[in-house]
């Protein structure tokens, strides 16, 4: 599993080698399967729209329009609008199936309770909007692309077209011989990758619009507000965590250190056979134990070596303290936001702890990679596998911690191993 594998066509467009990947072929398949759907829709809209345009043009020219024609066209337009939510059911179903050609990500399907919901829900009217998009704008874009392809094809075959007795017009020039047509043919060949890229770009734009219109998840506004609220809570938690860390480090810890030092000095002044020697020794040991506990608490809030060494250095320290060999590969580049570093650190720490407790592994590997979308953390071991979040709270807690910063956790752990934990944390460059 590599972190830079594109999950959909729009992401593949950002890769330099996308023309050599399977994505252009998938895009062309998506464009080809659009024609049987968009063709009938465009014809239907043309049958309805052409008379309406003619009537509007007549009105614009101040010519009289017969009332029966206006009434008839109005009724037809209303019938089309009334039937659109029903027609869009089949169109949306076909589009959700076709969309997997260029975007395999899950697409939420809205649930409608009865025919009335087709006329009252926002999701249904978004499907109607997608239907009109397929019947109206998409054919125009495809026609423009077809004309460009036809023009490029004419340039490529121009040497053969010019081999006859009649002159041939290529673009704006008239050619008489195949030799004159060779430069145009070369330009046509060089334009083929650009046309392929343009076709892929058209497919990506159409797929993005279709996903936006057909995704029947919860209300977008509500989701945005939930996301903002969660971000505010995470920021507030981080601020409170830093305040507690500062108060403990600057307030309680120095005072406890001073108390431990005073108890140690007092033990030196009290004879060993004194009745107070034993209680004083117990108090001194308890104070030292409390010091260790307090350091662990501060360490649990935000490890000091994470602040000093950064994520890669802190993870290497974790690997050095592990009970099995742990190999760390880090390719981070720019510094990461504090909340992302902290989350990634505790993901690695908890995962290595799970490996030590449950995996019976001989080795483990940690990979930290900065991708276009954020930070990717992978922890892989050669243990017995069969990790199940339902059997304990460790993986569930990790997933909750990752979700709090809008990330996601993926787990692959077949029986017999290996186990791979992959965490993707959003962190734009």
TrEMBL record:
SMART domains found in the cross-reference section: HATPase_c
EC number(s) given by UniProt: 2.7.13.3
Highest taxon above the source species: Bacteria
Transcription is among the record's keywords: no
Name of the protein described by the UniProt record: histidine kinase
Residues annotated as transmembrane: 28-49, 69-94, 140-161, 181-204
Keyword terms, alphabetized: ATP-binding, Kinase, Membrane, Nucleotide-binding, Phosphoprotein, Transferase, Transmembrane, Transmembrane helix, Two-component regulatory system
Species annotation: Micromonospora humida
Histidine kinase/HSP90-like ATPase domain boundaries: 339-429
């Amino acid at each position: 599993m590599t972190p830079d594998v594109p999950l959909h066509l729009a992401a593949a467009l950002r890769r330099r080698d996308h023309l050599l990947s399977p994505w252009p072929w998938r895009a062309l398949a998506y464009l080809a399967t659009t024609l049987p759907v968009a063709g009938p829709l465009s014809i239907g809209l043309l049958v309805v729209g052409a008379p309406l345009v003619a009537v509007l043009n007549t009105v614009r020219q101040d010519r009289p329009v017969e009332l029966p024609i206006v009434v008839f066209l109005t009724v037809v337009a209303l019938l089309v609008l009334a039937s659109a939510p029903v027609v869009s059911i089949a169109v949306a179903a076909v589009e959700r199936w076709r969309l997997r050609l260029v975007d395999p990500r899950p697409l939420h399907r809205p649930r409608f309770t009865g025919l009335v919901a087709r006329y009252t829900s926002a999701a249904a009217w978004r499907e109607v909007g997608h239907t009109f998009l397929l019947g109206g704008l998409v054919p125009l874009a495809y026609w423009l692309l077809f004309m460009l392809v036809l023009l490029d094809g004419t340039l490529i075959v121009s040497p053969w077209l010019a081999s006859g007795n009649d002159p041939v017009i290529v673009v704006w020039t008239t050619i008489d011989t195949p030799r004159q047509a060779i430069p145009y043919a070369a330009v046509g060949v060089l334009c083929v990758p650009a046309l392929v890229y343009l076709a892929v770009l058209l497919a990506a734009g159409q797929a993005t619009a279709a996903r936006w219109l057909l995704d029947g998840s919860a209300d977008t506004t509500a989701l945005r507000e939930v996301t903002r609220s969660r971000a505010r809570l995470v920021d507030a938690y981080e601020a409170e965590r830093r305040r507690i860390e500062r108060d403990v480090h600057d307030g309680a810890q120095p005072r406890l250190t001073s108390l431990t030092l005073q108890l140690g000095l007092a033990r030196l002044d009290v004879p060993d056979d004194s009745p107070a020697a034993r209680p004083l020794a117990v108090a001194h040991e308890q104070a030292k134990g409390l010091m260790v506990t307090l350091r662990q608490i501060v360490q649990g809030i935000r490890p000091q070596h994470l602040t000093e060494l950064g994520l890669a250095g802190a993870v290497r320290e974790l690997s050095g303290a592990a009970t099995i060999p742990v190999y760390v590969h880090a390719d981070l580049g720019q510094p990461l936001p504090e909340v992302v570093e902290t989350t990634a650190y505790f993901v690695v720490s908890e995962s290595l702890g799970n490996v030590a407790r449950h995996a019976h592994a001989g080795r483990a590997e940690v990979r930290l990679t900065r991708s276009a979308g954020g930070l990717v953390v992978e922890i892989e071991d050669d243990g017995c596998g069969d990790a199940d979040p339902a059997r304990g709270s460790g993986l569930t807690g990790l997933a909750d911690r990752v979700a709090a910063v809008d990330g996601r956790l993926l787990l692959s752990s077949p029986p017999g191993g290996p186990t791979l934990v992959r965490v993707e944390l959003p962190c734009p460059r």
